[in-house]
Amino acid sequence: MGELLRIGFSLNLDNDAARETLTRAESWCSGHGVEAWSSSADDADGIRAACPGTDLICVLGGDGTFLRTARAIGDSEVPALGVNLGRVGFLAKVETADLERTLDQVVADQYSIEERFRISATVIRADGSSETHACLNEVVVTRGSRVRMIQVEVEVSGSHLATYVADGVVVATPTGSTAYSFSAGGAVLDPRLRNVIITPVAGYLSPLHSVVAGERHEVRLTLRESHEGAIISIDGQTDLPMRSGERVEVRALPIPLRLLEPEGSTPFYELLRTKASLLPY
After folding, report:
1. Which of 14, 78, 192, 260 has the fewest CB atoms within 10 Å of its CB?
2. How far are the Cα atoms of 29, 130, 169, 242 from residue 223, in angstroms, in the given order?
3. Which of 252, 254, 229 is nearest to 139 (CA)?
4. How many domains does one find in the chain?
């Protein structure tokens, strides 16, 4: 990274704990001659515009705040550091109480960079129009508000895998494998891998429960049948309507998200065990 000259802080401005943490962070920056800027995690354009010349973005919040910030960071390759203010916080490397000590470690070059695989989701509409979204966690095709299952055909690089009759189908990255895919019974992948995991949600009589595909494969989800359409969810942050016959094409993105990991951070598998113990079951 070189010399630490400019840090951005992304947060939920409605969260009192996040604002208090920001005050502490700004005080540290002032005392160390580091320029600081802050933004709401919802202000993607503002974060995107501030990325050039920024050495590090600290995300003050839970996984939702982190995912919104990650989408704004995009292809800029600015490292991100998650400071946990949520309950589970799989994306956070630092607890709030350790913020200043961690920033001291960054100045002393006591950290590593972990690259997290990202994917793109291209939605192909019935009229041939399309739109593409970047994802860190997952793409989900799911039923709408009515409790009626949908039929989703899944193809991997042109080969038919299955047509699921289910509440939905999740295509998750290794980072996202601890989220919705996991809750649907999918396996947890090592976050440093470059694969996707395809998992049906409440699949009916499905012999294929969860399948892993490599980064070179394109995964295509086509909505074959639904009573009132379906929803495409991007990282749980953006929901798009979907009609029968429309599809989502999921591909690897070449530029990863770069996560800063301070020396002494809890190893992933220990973090997984610790965080899982906080879940309400």
Report:
1. 14
2. 50, 15, 10, 8
3. 252
4. 2
281 within domain boundaries = no
> Among all residues, which ones are annotated catalytic?
63
Which residues, at least 6 apart from 158, have a Cβ–Cβ distance to it below 8 Å? 218
Inside any domain, residue 246 = yes
In a domain, 1, yes or no: no
SS3 143: strand
Does one domain contain both 171 and 264? no
The answer to whether 129 and 64 are in contact (CB under 8 A) is no
Question: Which pLDDT tens digit goes with each residue over 8-29?
Answer: 999 999 999 999 999 999 999 9
Tell me how far apart the alpha carbons of residues 257 and 247 are, in angstroms, rounded to a whole number: 26
Shared domain check, 177 and 76: no
Q: Are strands 150-156 and 159-166 parallel, antiparallel or unpaired?
A: antiparallel
Per-residue model confidence (pLDDT) at position 281:
47
Print the domain residue range for 215: 119-252
CATH code, domain with 73: 3.40.50.10330
Residue 97 has pLDDT above 60, yes or no: yes
- Alpha helices (runs of H) in 132-220, residue ranges in sequence order: 180-183
What's the sign of the alpha-carbon dihedral 58, 61, 67, 72?
negative
Residue 255: CB atoms within 10 Å: 12
- The domain that contains 186 carries what CATH number? 2.60.200.30
Strands 111-116 and 238-242: unpaired
